[in-house]
Amino acid sequence: MTIGLRIAVVVLTVGQILWASASLDERYTLKNIISAVTNIPDQPVYGEHIEGQLARFLKGQPRFEFSEPGYALLKEKVKGLDGKKIIFANRESLSPYSPVLTELAKEGVDAVVFAELQAESKKYNILLLLVATKGPHIIHYYVQTVDNPYSLDSFSEAILRGGSELLKGMPFDATVLNREGYRVIIDRGKPDLSVGMELPTYTLEQKDDKISLEETGKIVLTQVEDSLSFGKIVLEKKPSEVLSGNKIKIPAYPAYSDKPWVPPFDKTDKVAFSEPEQTLPKRRLGYVDVQLGASFVTANNTARDGSSVGSDNVYFPGGSLRGELWITRRLFADFGFRFSMSKVTPLGGGGASVSPNALNSTVNDIRGQVGYRFSLSGPDPGPSVHLKAGFARYNFSIDASADRLALNSSSYSGMLIGGGGDLPVAERLQLGFDVNALLFASMSESPLTSGELSSCSGWDFILRGTYRLNPAIDIDARVIFQANNAEFTGAGTRAIPLASASHSTRQLLFGMSYYF
């Protein structure tokens, strides 16, 4: 009797070990996933870009759901870690993050992909870690080298390659979402699966502090959608052994292997990675933009008796040179210079010429601003707005004329404040706009003076379109509307006192931007 009881206990114990482990299956669901870069403060421009590209990569995987609330919570909590990085790929390295990961698990987040940017010997590496929030536990890691550290697109390509390799370290390819009778639903579909495929199912078991996959049965797919598949159970090793949370391996797919899966790290592993070296300046990223096009310029002087002299939509060929320097991931400096030239024939109120010859004229615009950019949607490169402030000077130069209402060479200047926005409308196409206005504007003129300046204003509105041609070059176009006005009191050196002077510009420019 005693011997029989002992045998029964042994059989019961073995059965408990081999029976489907719902707790471990739930711990490694890995459906709801988010990402974060741990050392953005050290690498603000690169780090922000990597984080956005990593989120885009994960969102493009049908097997995952990217938790925007979980991402916002992670970003908020990580700020309090004072830039602590994961520099050892073992369980101990997660200690600073454990409270955050535990809180994320309660919010329904299954896994986090942490990335750390490391610079060494004139190259950049990206360390990627796939971490289960329940535990927490490091599942897999991968180190990807960036081919060209001077190109943001090279970082994007590194995330695509490194992310794909990281996911190959996942121990399974899909999960059973639901079982009803002998029918199951799994969280993967086209193009990886097709009707009629026979797939093994597994449960996760822990023995001697090691986790392995134990086969529970087989299913055959009866219906395959874009991100879901439906099947029926054709083999089950024990009654009700195939459960929600069971794992699926796809034959001939990266995660498929006949060998039991064992996580790559345990408590004795000490896989160390070097601390980042600042081999490249953090603030070296930006771009220069060269454009050519044409301006239509209208200048006008109006006397106090109502008479006027102006130019009628004069065509000014010209171009622009501008650049932007990214100081941090949000803060930037913007510099611009526009120049155009033509000949102007001043016209009187009746439309007749008031000058025997066309006069040489040039228009130029110089400005420098510092701005701050705000993202409107998560980590992806998406809609954004920005605010800018700086200084600008608009110059209209023209040859001297003997006419009493002659168009003067004029210069408008002041503090330039404004803002704008950008909206990606396709993978390579982006639209944007800018609005600027002169604050505390002033105006000077020569060789004649029109009197005391009573008011002065200036503004411009810019529409932009950009198409990414390759990693280093964008093709872009701009439509610019600009107006400057001044009003006068008293008398200057003119024979006829002026009431007002105005200059307006409509400009169309095409060119390219080079990113460095």
Please describe the structure with a list of short key phrases separated by commas or semicolons.
single chain, about 525 residues, mainly beta, ten-stranded antiparallel beta barrel, six-stranded antiparallel barrel, 22 strands
Structural commentary:
By secondary structure, the chain is mostly beta strands. 15% of the residues lie in helices and 48% in strands. It is built from 6 helices and 22 strands. The chain has a 10-stranded antiparallel beta barrel. A 6-stranded antiparallel beta barrel has the order 6-7-10-9-8-11. The longest helix has 17 residues. It is elongated, with a radius of gyration of 33 Å.
Strand content is: over 45%
Structural shape: elongated
Q: What fraction, in percent, of the residue positions are helical?
A: 10-25%
How big is the Rg?
Answer: 33 Å
Quickly count the helices: 6
pLDDT averaged over residues = 79
Structural class: mainly beta
| Elements, N to C (H/E) | HHEHEHHEEEHEEEEEEEEEEEEEEEEE
The unreliable regions are 1-22, 87-91, 254-283
What is the end-to-end distance? 83 Å
| Largest β-sheet summary | 10 strands, antiparallel, barrel
Tell me the total number of β-strands.
22
User: What order do the strands of the largest sheet run in, or round the barrel if closed?
Assistant: 12-14-15-16-17-18-19-20-21-22
